[in-house]
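Why do we care about 3D structure at all? Because function follows from shape, and shape follows, mostly, from sequence. That is the central idea of this module. The next example makes it concrete: a single protein chain, its amino acid sequence, and then its structure expressed as tokens.
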Amino acid sequence: MTPADQAAPEHVVPPRRAVNVEHLTVLYDSQCQVCRRARSWVMGQATYVPVTFIAAGSPHAQERFPHLDHGATLRDVTVLDDDGRFYRGDRAWIMILWAVVSTRLLAMDVAQGRRRRAFASVKGAAELARKITAAAPTPPAPPVPPPPFNGWNAPGVDGTVNGRVPGACVGDTCR
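And the structure:
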């Protein structure tokens, strides 16, 4: 932890009184396939509080959070709440799980010392997968080409779609 990091208090979970967490920002390694997959999973879940993801070490992250050690944010997931508190490592994962509706009870159990073995097993498997995928990084997906001028299923100049004459359409269905 750098002297700049010491200025912001680090917590396990939000205190039960007087502090309401209304938003979480997650700094994640955008080059890590496991991290991207976790991000996609969280973004597809119902959450109690909004969760925003920012690529760790990016110019946006450095501009928004100049007080953090951005090298450390690339080594381990970092979560910041709307009051400026930050969480790293296991504490960050607990906060992410706390924000997701389906995993809040698990997060509370882990934060209180229960279910640590299961949490450690899952985290260990994720770390192993991260090391394996880091050895052979996945290239970015190619860009999706734009649709043709009249759309993907527009008749061609000869009036056919994929070589067939379109049949009658009823509602959204064409035969």
